[in-house]
Amino acid sequence: MAASVLVAGLALVVGTGVGAGAATATQLTVGYIPATTAGGIPAIGDKFGWFKKEGLDIKWAPFTSGPAQAAAMAGGSLDISYLGGPAIWTSVKGIGKIVGLSDLSYDIFLLARPDSGIKSVRDLKGQRVGFSQGNASHMFLLMSLESAGMSFSDVKTTAMDPPTAVSAFLSGAVPAVSVFAPFAGTILEKEPGTVVLKQSRNFANTPLPGVLVASDKLLEENPGALKKFLRVAVKATEYRARHRSDTVNAVARFAKVPRGPLFKQYDLEYWIRPAAILRSYQTGKFVAWVRKMQELQVRMGVLSEIQPASTFMRLGLHTAALKEYLAAQKKPK
Predict the structure, then answer these.
(1) CA–CA separation, 113 vs 5, rounded Å?
(2) Domain ranges across the chain
(3) How many CA atoms lie within 13 A of 131 on its CB side?
(4) 289 or 136: which carries more pLDDT confidence?
(5) In what order do the strands lie in the sheet with 97-105?
(6) What is the homologous superfamily of the domain 3-104+208-330 according to CATH?
(7) Dihedral sign from CA coordinates of 75, 235, 180, 204
(8) pLDDT, tens digit, 9 for 90 and up, residues 32-82
(9) Under 8 Å CB-to-CB from 120, ≥6 apart: which residues?
């Protein structure tokens, strides 16, 4: 897609307003995954009391995947969630709207057991591979297979949630898994000699954007509460990019998970900062990244066709929060 078309499309997305309903309620239910990506903004904002300072009373709901959060949002029990790029198909299909970019994920791995004899992606032919349906591990398995001239029909896929994939791999029940951090970090820590067949940094030209998603009800009935949440998200995004140990410690305490895998994940990510996020909106890069995700998801079979960004993105509030934050940084102290 030409850059001019992307910029025009992005202008439409950013300019798409939200309802002006009364913004009185301050209670929100927000989903997260215990990782420095999905859990970073909640943990940092909670640590410094930023959500409370904005007048938000948040009930935090832990999940192990983006599609599970989307299902909860579809059922009316989540106001805001985090989706890894490969799970944006849920928003494309009408479950909430993407309201902001959080990070660019490079923390997905295709792993083989050291005793499996599998040394390359091609060696997976005819082998059993565990993966999680409809999310990052699903998309990454497809990308890895295609890079070797293969498809899903060349392997024996077994769908399982990430914790189950870890257990199955460590017990030897499956010889290979496609899994994202921090679950991948757990495997690498507990199974020395694990063979890394592919990791998402091998596909640097196809970043997987992690995004924040808001329910249609929140957008329509209480955009003021969402604006407050995104104001905190912008500050937390900057803090996370600049403070490795503090971020890992905050997420570990918040989510009650070990720090080791979190450090491994943190070091794998590209922590995009507010100024770069804003530029990605203004230049159309973000829309282009999401379109690449849709193209892959059509091949995955979770989408039937590509949809225009204007149907499932509402970036106006995040754009305003980014500009407000960046302007404040330029003011003399």
Answers:
(1) 45
(2) 3-104+208-330, 108-203
(3) 27
(4) 289
(5) 57-62, 27-32, 80-83, 208-214, 97-105
(6) Periplasmic binding protein-like II (3.40.190.10)
(7) positive
(8) 999 999 999 999 999 999 999 999 999 999 998 888 999 999 999 999 999
(9) 148, 197
| pLDDT of 204 above 80 | no
* CA-CA-CA-CA torsion sign (89, 287, 231, 41): positive
Q: Count helices and strands (H / E) in the chain.
A: 15, 10
Residues 246, 162, 185, 109: what is their CA dihedral angle, to the nearest 10 degrees?
Answer: -120
Bridge pairing between strands 176-180 and 57-62: unpaired
Question: d(Cα 303, Cα 84) in Å, to the nearest integer?
Answer: 16
For 91-125, the DSSP string reads: HHTTSSEEEEEEEEE--EEEEE-TTS---SGGGGT
What span, in angstroms and rounded, lies between the C-alpha atoms of 41 and 143?
A: 28
Domain 108-203 -> CATH class? alpha beta
pTM as predicted: 0.80
Map 8-22 to HEC letters.
Answer: HHHHHHHHCCCCCCC
Residue 82 has what DSSP assignment? E
Query: What does the alpha-carbon distance between residue 328 and residue 333 come to, in Å, rounded to a whole number?
Result: 9
CA dihedral 257, 258, 260, 264 (to 10 degrees): -10
In contact, 201 and 143? CB cutoff 8 Å:
no
Q: Does this chain's domain 3-104+208-330 share its CATH topology with 108-203? A: yes
Rounded to the nearest 5 degrees, what angle is found at the Cα of 264, between the Cα atoms of 259 and 269?
120
CA distances from 186 to 12, 163, 218 (A): 42, 10, 36
Written as six digits, the tokens of 56 are 């938000």
Q: Which H or E run includes 135?
A: none
